[in-house]
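Translate structure to sequence.
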Protein backbone atom coordinates (compact mmCIF):
# COMPACT_ATOMS: atom_id res chain seq x y z
CA UNK A 1 0.00 0.00 0.00
CA UNK A 2 2.77 2.44 0.99
CA UNK A 3 6.43 2.10 0.19
CA UNK A 4 9.10 4.65 1.09
CA UNK A 5 12.69 3.92 0.16
CA UNK A 6 15.61 6.10 1.29
CA UNK A 7 13.39 9.16 1.52
CA UNK A 8 15.06 12.42 2.47
CA UNK A 9 13.33 15.77 2.63
CA UNK A 10 15.44 18.90 2.79
CA UNK A 11 13.56 22.20 2.97
CA UNK A 12 15.78 24.32 0.75
CA UNK A 13 14.76 27.68 2.16
CA UNK A 14 16.01 27.05 5.71
CA UNK A 15 18.27 24.05 5.16
CA UNK A 16 16.26 21.84 7.57
CA UNK A 17 16.46 18.09 6.93
CA UNK A 18 12.93 17.12 8.01
CA UNK A 19 13.25 13.45 6.99
CA UNK A 20 16.58 11.68 6.79
CA UNK A 21 16.86 8.46 4.77
CA UNK A 22 13.51 7.01 5.81
CA UNK A 23 12.42 3.50 4.84
CA UNK A 24 8.86 2.46 5.59
CA UNK A 25 6.41 -0.11 4.26
CA UNK A 26 2.75 -0.23 5.20
CA UNK A 27 0.53 -3.08 4.04
CA UNK A 28 -3.10 -2.78 2.96
CA UNK A 29 -5.46 -2.87 5.94
CA UNK A 30 -2.95 -1.75 8.58
CA UNK A 31 -3.67 0.87 11.25
CA UNK A 32 -0.47 2.78 11.94
CA UNK A 33 0.23 5.51 14.46
CA UNK A 34 3.02 7.96 13.67
CA UNK A 35 4.35 9.46 16.92
CA UNK A 36 7.22 11.76 17.84
CA UNK A 37 7.94 15.10 19.44
CA UNK A 38 7.00 18.34 17.74
CA UNK A 39 9.33 19.06 14.83
CA UNK A 40 10.38 15.42 14.42
CA UNK A 41 9.05 15.18 10.85
CA UNK A 42 5.57 13.64 11.18
CA UNK A 43 3.71 16.26 9.14
CA UNK A 44 6.38 16.23 6.48
CA UNK A 45 5.88 12.48 6.11
CA UNK A 46 2.11 12.97 5.77
CA UNK A 47 2.59 15.75 3.20
CA UNK A 48 4.86 13.57 1.12
CA UNK A 49 2.22 10.83 1.05
CA UNK A 50 -0.44 13.36 0.01
CA UNK A 51 1.80 14.77 -2.71
CA UNK A 52 1.75 18.20 -1.00
CA UNK A 53 5.54 18.11 -0.84
CA UNK A 54 8.06 16.21 -2.96
CA UNK A 55 11.09 14.43 -1.48
CA UNK A 56 14.62 15.67 -2.14
CA UNK A 57 15.72 12.06 -2.59
CA UNK A 58 14.15 8.63 -2.52
CA UNK A 59 11.13 6.72 -3.77
CA UNK A 60 7.50 6.92 -2.63
CA UNK A 61 4.79 4.61 -3.85
CA UNK A 62 1.20 4.97 -2.67
CA UNK A 63 -1.16 2.25 -3.81
CA UNK A 64 1.23 1.24 -6.59
CA UNK A 65 1.50 4.80 -7.90
CA UNK A 66 4.88 6.52 -8.06
CA UNK A 67 4.06 9.70 -6.14
CA UNK A 68 7.38 11.39 -6.90
CA UNK A 69 7.14 11.13 -10.67
CA UNK A 70 3.42 11.70 -10.75
CA UNK A 71 2.14 13.27 -13.96
CA UNK A 72 -0.14 16.27 -13.55
CA UNK A 73 -3.06 14.35 -15.08
CA UNK A 74 -2.67 11.58 -12.49
CA UNK A 75 -3.14 13.89 -9.48
CA UNK A 76 -6.97 13.74 -9.42
CA UNK A 77 -6.74 9.93 -9.41
CA UNK A 78 -4.30 9.96 -6.51
CA UNK A 79 -6.60 12.27 -4.57
CA UNK A 80 -9.45 9.83 -5.11
CA UNK A 81 -7.40 6.98 -3.67
CA UNK A 82 -7.05 8.44 -0.20
CA UNK A 83 -9.03 10.54 2.22
CA UNK A 84 -7.42 13.15 4.45
CA UNK A 85 -8.47 14.41 7.87
CA UNK A 86 -6.90 17.29 9.78
CA UNK A 87 -6.92 18.55 13.35
CA UNK A 88 -8.84 21.71 12.35
CA UNK A 89 -11.57 19.87 10.35
CA UNK A 90 -11.30 22.19 7.29
CA UNK A 91 -14.98 22.17 6.40
CA UNK A 92 -16.55 24.66 4.01
CA UNK A 93 -18.45 27.00 6.35
CA UNK A 94 -21.00 28.15 3.76
CA UNK A 95 -22.03 24.59 2.87
CA UNK A 96 -24.26 22.22 4.81
CA UNK A 97 -23.10 18.88 6.20
CA UNK A 98 -24.56 17.15 3.16
CA UNK A 99 -22.95 19.61 0.73
CA UNK A 100 -19.56 19.37 2.41
CA UNK A 101 -19.54 15.62 1.90
CA UNK A 102 -21.12 15.71 -1.58
CA UNK A 103 -18.54 18.26 -2.71
CA UNK A 104 -15.76 15.64 -2.58
CA UNK A 105 -17.71 13.61 -5.15
CA UNK A 106 -18.83 16.54 -7.30
CA UNK A 107 -15.23 17.58 -7.98
CA UNK A 108 -14.60 14.21 -9.58
CA UNK A 109 -17.84 14.46 -11.55
CA UNK A 110 -19.83 11.66 -9.96
CA UNK A 111 -23.44 11.26 -11.17
CA UNK A 112 -25.98 12.92 -8.83
CA UNK A 113 -27.85 9.70 -7.96
CA UNK A 114 -24.66 8.01 -6.86
CA UNK A 115 -23.65 11.07 -4.84
CA UNK A 116 -26.93 11.03 -2.95
CA UNK A 117 -26.72 7.33 -2.14
CA UNK A 118 -23.07 7.54 -1.08
CA UNK A 119 -23.45 10.67 1.05
CA UNK A 120 -26.44 9.21 2.90
CA UNK A 121 -24.49 6.00 3.51
CA UNK A 122 -21.41 7.71 4.97
CA UNK A 123 -23.51 10.09 7.08
CA UNK A 124 -25.10 6.95 8.54
CA UNK A 125 -21.65 5.53 9.32
CA UNK A 126 -20.66 8.66 11.28
CA UNK A 127 -24.14 9.05 12.79
CA UNK A 128 -24.99 12.45 11.31
CA UNK A 129 -27.77 11.70 8.84
CA UNK A 130 -30.29 13.73 10.85
CA UNK A 131 -28.00 16.79 10.82
CA UNK A 132 -27.36 16.77 7.08
CA UNK A 133 -28.91 20.22 6.62
CA UNK A 134 -26.92 21.84 9.43
CA UNK A 135 -24.01 24.18 8.78
CA UNK A 136 -20.60 23.57 10.42
CA UNK A 137 -21.03 26.42 12.93
CA UNK A 138 -24.16 24.67 14.25
CA UNK A 139 -22.16 21.55 15.17
CA UNK A 140 -19.88 20.59 18.06
CA UNK A 141 -16.18 19.94 17.38
CA UNK A 142 -16.74 16.19 17.47
CA UNK A 143 -19.60 16.46 14.99
CA UNK A 144 -17.52 18.61 12.68
CA UNK A 145 -14.78 16.02 12.73
CA UNK A 146 -17.35 13.34 11.93
CA UNK A 147 -18.35 15.36 8.85
CA UNK A 148 -14.68 15.55 7.87
CA UNK A 149 -14.41 11.76 8.25
CA UNK A 150 -17.54 11.25 6.13
CA UNK A 151 -16.03 13.49 3.46
CA UNK A 152 -12.74 11.59 3.61
CA UNK A 153 -14.35 8.18 3.07
CA UNK A 154 -17.17 9.04 0.65
CA UNK A 155 -15.11 8.13 -2.41
CA UNK A 156 -14.37 4.76 -0.80
CA UNK A 157 -10.59 5.26 -0.55
CA UNK A 158 -8.19 2.42 0.24
CA UNK A 159 -6.20 4.74 2.50
CA UNK A 160 -7.08 7.38 5.09
CA UNK A 161 -4.42 9.83 6.26
CA UNK A 162 -5.31 11.61 9.50
CA UNK A 163 -3.04 14.32 10.95
CA UNK A 164 -3.81 14.79 14.68
CA UNK A 165 -7.55 14.20 14.10
CA UNK A 166 -8.44 14.34 17.81
CA UNK A 167 -6.12 17.22 18.70
CA UNK A 168 -9.01 19.65 19.23
CA UNK A 169 -11.42 17.25 20.94
CA UNK A 170 -12.17 16.38 24.56
CA UNK A 171 -11.44 12.81 25.77
CA UNK A 172 -15.02 11.45 25.46
CA UNK A 173 -15.43 12.82 21.94
CA UNK A 174 -11.98 11.53 21.06
CA UNK A 175 -13.17 7.97 21.77
CA UNK A 176 -16.28 8.40 19.61
CA UNK A 177 -14.02 9.46 16.78
CA UNK A 178 -11.57 6.61 17.39
CA UNK A 179 -14.47 4.14 17.28
CA UNK A 180 -15.35 5.41 13.83
CA UNK A 181 -11.74 5.04 12.67
CA UNK A 182 -11.71 1.50 14.08
CA UNK A 183 -14.84 0.60 12.12
CA UNK A 184 -13.41 2.07 8.92
CA UNK A 185 -10.23 0.06 9.45
CA UNK A 186 -12.22 -3.12 10.20
CA UNK A 187 -13.91 -2.64 6.83
CA UNK A 188 -10.47 -2.90 5.20
CA UNK A 189 -9.28 0.70 4.83
CA UNK A 190 -5.65 1.39 5.69
CA UNK A 191 -5.24 4.17 8.26
CA UNK A 192 -2.19 6.27 9.02
CA UNK A 193 -2.61 8.66 11.92
CA UNK A 194 -0.31 11.08 13.69
CA UNK A 195 -1.14 11.77 17.31
CA UNK A 196 0.24 13.16 20.57
CA UNK A 197 -2.40 11.30 22.59
CA UNK A 198 -0.72 8.60 24.69
CA UNK A 199 -4.01 7.17 25.83
CA UNK A 200 -5.24 6.48 22.32
CA UNK A 201 -2.04 4.75 21.24
CA UNK A 202 -1.80 2.66 24.41
CA UNK A 203 -5.40 1.52 24.32
CA UNK A 204 -5.63 0.80 20.59
CA UNK A 205 -2.54 -1.48 20.55
CA UNK A 206 -1.74 -0.99 16.87
CA UNK A 207 1.50 -0.54 14.96
CA UNK A 208 3.50 2.43 16.23
CA UNK A 209 6.18 4.18 14.15
CA UNK A 210 8.19 6.74 16.09
CA UNK A 211 10.11 9.49 14.33
CA UNK A 212 12.85 11.52 15.98
CA UNK A 213 14.98 14.09 14.19
CA UNK A 214 13.68 12.93 10.81
CA UNK A 215 14.57 9.28 11.37
CA UNK A 216 12.46 6.27 12.29
CA UNK A 217 13.70 5.27 15.73
CA UNK A 218 11.04 2.65 16.53
CA UNK A 219 8.59 0.50 14.57
CA UNK A 220 6.53 -1.80 16.74
CA UNK A 221 3.49 -4.02 16.22
CA UNK A 222 0.90 -3.61 18.97
CA UNK A 223 3.02 -0.78 20.31
CA UNK A 224 2.66 1.82 23.04
CA UNK A 225 3.20 5.56 22.85
P1 LIG B 1 6.15 17.49 13.15
O1 LIG B 1 4.95 17.30 12.30
O2 LIG B 1 6.66 16.22 13.74
O3 LIG B 1 5.97 18.56 14.18
P2 LIG B 1 7.32 18.71 10.78
O4 LIG B 1 7.37 17.71 9.71
O5 LIG B 1 6.26 19.76 10.75
O6 LIG B 1 7.35 17.97 12.20
O7 LIG B 1 8.72 19.48 10.83
C1 LIG B 1 10.00 18.84 10.77
C2 LIG B 1 11.09 19.91 10.62
O8 LIG B 1 10.97 20.54 9.33
C3 LIG B 1 11.00 21.03 11.63
O9 LIG B 1 12.32 21.43 11.96
C4 LIG B 1 10.27 22.12 10.89
O10 LIG B 1 10.64 23.39 11.37
C5 LIG B 1 10.74 21.93 9.47
N1 LIG B 1 9.69 22.32 8.48
C6 LIG B 1 8.44 21.82 8.39
N2 LIG B 1 7.77 22.35 7.36
C7 LIG B 1 8.62 23.23 6.77
C8 LIG B 1 8.53 24.12 5.64
N3 LIG B 1 7.42 24.18 4.91
N4 LIG B 1 9.61 24.85 5.34
C9 LIG B 1 10.73 24.78 6.06
N5 LIG B 1 10.90 23.98 7.13
C10 LIG B 1 9.87 23.20 7.49
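Result:
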Amino acid sequence: MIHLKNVTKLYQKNGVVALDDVNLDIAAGEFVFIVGTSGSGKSTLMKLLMHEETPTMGEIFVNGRDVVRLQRKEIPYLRREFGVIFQDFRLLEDKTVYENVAFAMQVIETPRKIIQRSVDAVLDIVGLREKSKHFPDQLSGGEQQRVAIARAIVNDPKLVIADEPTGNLDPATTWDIMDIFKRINDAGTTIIMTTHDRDIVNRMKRRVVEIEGGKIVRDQQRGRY
